[in-house]
Structures are given as C-alpha cells and as structure tokens.
Amino acid sequence: MTASEIPTGVVPTTRDRLVQAISTHGPITARQLAERFGLTSAAVRRHLAALEAEGVIAEHEVLVAQRGRGRPSKSFVLSQSAHEDLPGGYDEMAVMAVAELARLGGEEAVTALAERRIADWESAIARRVAECEEAGETVTAARKLELLSELLTERGYATTVRPLHVPLPAASAQSGTAPRTLVTAQLCHGHCPVLDIAADHPELCEAETRVISRIIGTPVQRLATLAQGAHACTTHIPLTEGRTS
Is the entire prediction scored with pTM above 0.70? Predict the structure, then answer.
C-alpha cells in the first residue's frame, strides 16, 4: 500500500503507518517520525529512502530559525501522485451534481450535458481521417472504427474492436450464387470513465451511441453496458456486406 487508505481489519505495516503520518502531519522529519513510532532514526530513514525512490513522498525544506539564522530542515510530505491516489470524493460529487442538474432541468438538461461531454469526438476523428487520407490511405468505415477505438482508449475507455462475419442464407438453393457474408464488428469498452453517473443516467450512454453512429456513418446498436452490470459496454456496428471466397 502507498497513500491509499488502509482497509478495515488490515494490520498496517510500518510503511503504511509512516505514509499515513506524513499525510496527516507533514511536513515531518525523520526524527519526528522515529519519536512518534518508537523506531530508530536509521530504520525510519531506510523506509523514507524507499518511499522517496518510489515517488510516494517528497522532500520539503522548511526554514528553521536558530540563533537568528535560518537553516534548511529536511522534512517530508506526500508527493503529488500520492495525493492523487487518495480517495477524494470527486465521483460522489459528480453524481450529486448531475442529479441536481436533472432535478432542475430534467432529462433534457442531462442529455445536453452528455452531448457536450463528447462533442469533440467527431472533430477529433475527422482530423485523424484527414491525416490518413493525406498519407494516401483510403479510409473505410472499418478504418474509422479503428481510429475511434484508438481515440477512446486514449480517453480511458479501454476500447477494442472485435470483427464479426455473419453468414447470410442464399436467396434459393438453386440460385447458384456464392454465399453472402455480413461484415460487422463490436466496439467494446472495458472501462467507463463515467460509470457511476451512467448507472443512474443512461442519457450518457445514449449520447455516446448516437455519436458513434454519426462517426461511422451507419446505424449502430448498444447491446450491453457496464452501467447495466455487463462486463463491457458493447456496441454492434454493421460495416459492409460482402461475399465469401
């Protein structure tokens, strides 16, 4: 464990106790920590050196007045990254904020917020498509889907594209035509950055589905969502109809 809270029932290690003390009382010196926990200064410094090397804590110089002159005292505080690991309540606040928006403005207000949150998806994909075309690439619907998957992964959705080929029955057994195949894909998100909100406000999922449809240029269907308890958000996307060899 680093700067995260110690779960109930788990006996904290010396390292956990040091991190908790630095979080609560920092800036704090090695000597003060040693006195607080009844440890030797050498033992505390070994732990602090390891925590500093891992980026959990950072030095903080404090000027201490002594005989009319100031001298730096080596103290420690939590690093910025460690602070980011601490529970902050932001998800809870976001849920409350959207609930209040829905109370004041109704479903239309939440839908407008959902649309605004993803408003730049289309322009971002348009730029990437233009870059591909400038490089001489023909950008198909399938390629747009790949570009969208890359964009969403960058934004925390852990997205993959899973191609599917669905055989279609021939018009008649005597037609002599080759069997046809419907080429489709599933766009799957293994993570949802707004899961806590989407669980109560499906407008966010619906807005994403609409923008995916506009980007690919074809009707799409959301089959499952993390907000509904599925293991992934899955969107069915028809691409092209072709023939098997």
Answer: no
The neighbouring-strand residues paired with 188 are 160, 234
| Interacting residues of 204 by C-beta distance below 8 A, sequence separation 6+ | 110, 114, 117, 194, 197, 198
Would residue 3 count as lying in a domain?
A: no
Given 22, 52, 85, the domain boundary residue is: 85
Cα-Cα-Cα-Cα dihedral sign, residues 158, 4, 53, 63? positive
Question: Residue 220 falls within a domain, yes or no?
Answer: yes
Q: How far is the C-alpha of 213 from the C-alpha of 198, rounded, in Å? A: 19
Among residues 234, 218, 237, 238, the alpha carbon closest in space to that of 226 is found at 234
Instruction: Examine the domain organization and report whether 122 and 188 are in the same domain.
Output: yes
Residues 141 and 148: their CA atoms lie apart, in Å, by 10
What amino acid occupies position 15? R
Domain holding 94, by residue range, is 90-168+179-243
The CATH number that applies at residue 236 is 3.30.1380
**10-residue block means of pLDDT along the chain (245 residues)?**
46 83 85 92 92 88 53 77 65 88 93 94 97 95 95 92 81 63 89 90 95 95 91 89 43
Among the candidates 51, 69, 85, a domain finishes at 85
Q: Token pair of 196, please?
A: 């806590």
Instruction: For the chain, report the end-to-end CA distance as a whole number of angstroms.
Output: 56
Between CA 226 and CA 124, with CA 195 as vertex, the angle to 5 degrees is 95
